Amino acid sequence: MLEVKNLSKHFGDVKAVNDISFSVGKGEVFGLLGENGAGKTTTLRLLATMLKPTSGTALVGDYDLVREPERVRRNIGILFGGESGLYDRLTAAENIAYFGELNNMEKSELDRRVRELAEIFGMEEYINKRAGKFSKGMKQKVAFARSIVHNPQIMLFDEPTSGLDVSAVRDVHEFIQKCRDEGKTIVFSSHSMSEVEKLCDRVGIIHKGNLIAIGTIEELSSKFKGDSLENIFVKLVGEKNEH
Ligand SMILES: Nc1ncnc2c1ncn2[C@@H]1O[C@H](COP(=O)(O)OP(=O)(O)O)[C@@H](O)[C@H]1O
Ligand SMILES: [Mg+2]
Predict the structure, then answer these.
(1) Which pLDDT score is estimated for 83?
(2) Ligand 1 pocket residues where CB is under 6 Å
(3) d(CA 178, CA 184)
(4) Which residue CA neighbors atom 24 of ligand 1 most closely?
(5) DSSP 196
(6) Please, which pLDDT band fits residue 22 given cuts at 50, 70 and 90?
(7) For ligand 1, atom 6, which residue shows the shortest CA distance?
(8) Contacts of residue 221, Cβ cutoff 8 Å, sequence gap at least 6
(9) Ligand 1, atom nearest to 191 Cα
(10) 186 alpha carbon – ligand 2 mean position (Å)
(11) How far is Cα 5 from Cα 27, in angstroms, rounded to an integer?
């Protein structure tokens, strides 16, 4: 599981992430909802050990984010939106294996795992072809497989559906649900209310680096007297923008 403790990241005067705390259990999907510039990517980059916190830390599985970043890295899977980040000149299998090597997986275990993932995601026909000419959907499957090659317990998704067409969005949603069914601990960020409503067990609303509300959608509805996540969000963020 994941326990974020008073995590902050400041860039000069900008408090990109300001003293946020939340925890996410096994088999739970936690949605980080916020406008552009709210601090979602910075939060996820901190948890992925790609940035060092200004203060605070997190317990990622059994490991401390600040003191044991290498161990943390081995326990997390990352899927960030935008470009898939595959190497065009490598085959699908090589792209996946490369990530496994970065995670210190052994060659024999890695070969077995790549075959297994090819089957799970239906990539057998192109697993040994170079990624450069793949369609978007094929690339997406390789990116899914790569993110879980080392069987991480904790998954971080940063706006994984941004810029995707309808069927690719559906594939991402199914992948997140599959990770949840496997008992993984999941944090994903989004600025789409409907996506968060559909997928999340609990939601954190982030605004200007602050976590301004946290709970299940039912809890937020009764606390902030809104009949939809959108109403609650507009109410909370609108109020803050006036001040
Ligand atoms: N490397 C950086 N240097 C300076 N400011 C940054 C950096 N990364 C993010 N920020 C600022 O931190 C804030 C939060 O950004 P970000 O986490 O990307 O938000 P989101 O992902 O919610 O759109 C923004 O004001 C952004 O301009
Ligand atoms: Mg972002």
Answers:
(1) 72
(2) 11, 14, 16, 34, 36-42
(3) 9
(4) 37
(5) H
(6) very high
(7) 11
(8) 227, 228, 232
(9) 22
(10) 17
(11) 20
Q: Using the atom order of ligand 1, give the atom closest to the CA of residue 45.
A: 17
Q: What six digits make up the tokens of 26? A: 């096994």
Please state the atom number of ligand 1 nearest to the C-alpha of residue 36.
Answer: 23
DSSP state of 88: T
- Record the tokens describing residue 101, joined without a space: 């090597």
Amino acid at 116: E
Which ligand is located closest to the Cα atom of residue 33?
1
Domain 2-59+68-83+154-242 homologous superfamily, CATH: P-loop containing nucleotide triphosphate hydrolases (3.40.50.300)
Give the strand pairing for 29-33 and 55-60: unpaired
Among protein residues, the one whose CA lies closest to atom 16 of ligand 1: 39
Sign, CA torsion 80/189/192/34: negative
Residue type for position 238: G
State pLDDT tens for residues 64-106.
999 999 999 999 999 987 777 899 999 999 999 999 998 889 9
Distance (angstroms) between ligand 1 centre and the Cα of 207 equals: 12
